[in-house]
């Protein structure tokens, strides 16, 4: 029995030694394991970079634009409207100008990024990179340059397709942006500040960002991958080297990267690019309603048990919605079986539905559930009033949108009332009057303005008439005369 006791003692000592070694070696093993994981992440990034770089291009553009001549009364000022949130990576915004100055012509040079989506030279990029350009030159990673043709551009989604005359080109696979989750790794590649094929890494910070005021149809992917001027139009890819977004804008107070970038989801881009290639333009669906997001107070007022759906506030006469007997006060709950929860998502869904398509809407009216079938109409190219409360006053070269709490906070308009100028066409009546993107129109002909619909009515006019506008920009306000000619 004594030998058994010795064996037991030896086993106990060995176990103690092993346990002690584990205590000493576990931090070392953990450190080595962590380093190995980092190395594997680097290998993954390196692999993706090698796959996508040959398909990414640097884009240089030139365009002739109208600009006001210098004035001793011009007042360039430091404000949030001069940052990249409004410049969108392309050029410098015009300074706040006095009316009645003589327009002059000048050449504007810009740059951006894009990526090949087919072996025969089709390239996807942003509208704000190439839209209206007189000359577009594309440079590939190998240094070869091509003159590109603009196949089609869509300001509403800020997407464009251009083409170079070449074949057997490497191209990127378009992935599924719906499959993205917050926290997923993504890589951005492009030409920030002209430094072509620059790769940055980050995560998906948020999805479904809208109401930002960058384009008409917004459903942005937000990322913290470093994006800077010149990245615009380049791809945002996942670790499978699939495109999940098109880098479009940053929010910045400094003009450079501050951790918030926005990319157009590739699922939206797929539908847009197909129409641009086939037709050179985009045909959007039209329902013919004004809608607003549901709140807890509204839900209670309309007899809902919880906050769900969106509210129909007005039905436009002779529209598809009117023909289908959709009514003011209806609560839209589902479209083709899918839940409706945000105005922006529903509006994008309708816009991307082919005209002539019949959709099923589940609504709640006076406490009763009802299904309505609607044949989607076609949105006119000069459609002036949109379902989310924005207005396009094309005769003035002016686009307006409601001042949402988010925009008011971002732009320093907390506590203010008015309508936000979301776009000003170069050389238009509005630009010549001194109106700039990001301005807040507070009064028209001494009448306080509280909605886009009201502003649209007040801005109607005949040749020779003048409208007096009170504009707030930055910390100052100013009267401007807008004359119809």
Features:
7-stranded antiparallel beta sheet, alpha+beta, 29 strands, Pdz3 Domain, Thrombin, subunit H, 3 domains
Furnish the topology, listing elements before pairings:
Layout: H1 2-52, E1 56-68, H2 84-87, E2 103-116, E3 122-126, H3 127-130, E4 135-139, E5 145-147, E6 149-154, E7 159-163, E8 173-174, E9 185-190, E10 198-209, E11 220-223, E12 235-237, E13 242-250, E14 261-265, H4 266-279, E15 285-286, E16 289-293, H5 296-301, E17 310-315, H6 320-323, E18 331-335, E19 338-339, H7 343-351, E20 358-365, E21 368-375, E22 377-378, E23 391-393, E24 398-402, H8 405-411, E25 419-424, H9 429-433, E26 440-444, E27 447-448, H10 452-458, E28 466-473, E29 476-483
Parallel strand pairs: 8-13
Antiparallel strand pairs: 1-2, 1-4, 2-3, 3-7, 4-5, 6-7, 9-10, 9-12, 10-11, 11-14, 12-13, 13-14, 15-22, 16-17, 17-18, 18-19, 18-20, 20-21, 23-24, 24-25, 25-26, 26-27, 26-28, 28-29
Q: Which stretches are poorly predicted, pLDDT < 50 over at least 5 residues?
A: 68-100, 382-391
CATH topology of the largest domain: Thrombin, subunit H
Termini Cα gap: 115 Å
Q: Tell me the fraction of residues in β-strands, as a range.
A: 25-35%
What's the overall geometry? globular
Supply the CATH class of the largest domain. Mainly Beta
Average pLDDT confidence is 81
Q: Please give the order of strands in the largest beta sheet.
A: 5-4-1-2-3-7-6
Question: Which architecture of the largest domain does the CATH hierarchy give at level 2?
Answer: Beta Barrel
Largest sheet: 7 strands, antiparallel
Number of strands: 29
